[in-house]
Amino acid sequence: MVEVDVGVVGAGACGLCAGLAAKQAGVNTLILERDSTALGTTAMSTGLIPAAGTSFQNEAGIDDSPELFTEDVCRKSGYRTDQNVVMTITKESAQTIEWLAREQQEPLSLVDSFLYPGHSVKRMHGTPNRTGAELMGSLCNAAERAEVELLTDATVSGLFADSDGRVRGLRCTRPDGCTEDLACRAIILACCGFAGNRDMVQRYIPEIEKGEFFGHPGNQGDAVIWGEAMGAAVADMSGYQGHGGLAKGYGIPILWPTIVEGGIQVNQRGHRFSNEARGYSEQAVDVLEQDGAIAWTFFDKSRHQLMLEFDDYRDALTAGAIQQGETLEEICD
C-alpha cells in the first residue's frame, strides 16, 4: 500500500492549490483526479477569484477589507450563513491572491471593467482571458514546476477510518477496474458539490431541480456521501450556484455584466419579469418559471464592447448564440 502524508481528492483549482501549499510546506502529497486531464468545474467557469485588500486593489485605489467582504457575503445569503466561517475565508483571501500571483506565478489582475453582483467594490481577480480553463492550465503548470504528484484516471470510491473514526486512507479505481489503496495521515476532499446527482438535488434544493445541469459530471456529492456514512453532520445544503443566462442549446453562459451594466431580460412574450440585477444565481429560478424556461437578454453596443473582454462571450458570438441588429425588429427577425 502506498503511503503519503496528505491525499487530495480532486484536481480542480481547490485541489491543485491544496497540493501546491502542502508541497511548499514540505509535506508528502498526492492528488487524485478521476479524469485523464485536470479540469473540473473550474475549467467551466470564468475562473474569477474575489479577495479583499489585495495589492491589485491598492494599485487601483480601491479601499476594501475582510469585514466589508464578509458583510457582502452574509447580505447576499440573506444572513443565513455562518459569519465566523465567512470571516475566516475573507481574512485569508488577499494573501491567497498574493501567494498565487507572486509565488505560483499565476497571471492574475483585477477585473475593473464592472462591479460583480453582490460586491460593494471591485474585488474579482482573474487571468487575462477571464476563463477557468486558462486558470486551470496555469495551475497545472505551477504544480508541474513544483513537482506535485498528480495521479489521473483515479476515481476515489471510498475512505477508510480507524476504530476512533479518524480517516486513515482511501481506495481508488482505475479505468481497467483495478483498485488501489492509499494510506494517508490526512485527506482533503476537493471534489466539489452534488449538482450532477439528481437525487441529491431533489432532496436538498428542489426549487432548482428542473434546471439544466451545467457543470462537471463528476459532481456527484461524493464528499457529502462519504462524510455522512462516517457520521458527519451536514449544513447549508440548500445553497447552490445557479445561472439565469445559460445560452440554451449552446452550453455557454451569457455573463452577467450584460445585466449589471444596464441590460434586461424578457420572456417569450416580451415582458420583463424580475429584477435581474439581484444576481445571476437568483435569476435562474425566475427564468425557470417562464414559458419554456426561456428568457432573452437585451443589451446595447457599449455592453457588447465590454463583454468582448471575456472568452465565453466571444465563444457565444462565434457559435451564433447572440443575435445583433440595429433595431428590435431586426433582432427579432
From TrEMBL:
Keyword Translocase: no
Any one GO biological process: steroid metabolic process
Record domain FAD-dependent oxidoreductase 2 FAD-binding: where: 5-292
Cofactor or coenzyme needed: FAD
UniProt KW Lyase keyword: no
Name used for this protein in its record: FAD-dependent oxidoreductase 2 FAD-binding domain-containing protein
Xref: InterPro entries: FAD-dep_OxRdtase_2_FAD-bd, FAD-oxidoreductase_2, FAD/NAD-bd_sf, Succ_DH/fumarate_Rdtase_cat_sf
MF (Gene Ontology): oxidoreductase activity
Transmembrane stretches, start-end: none
Keywords associated with the record: FAD, Flavoprotein, Oxidoreductase
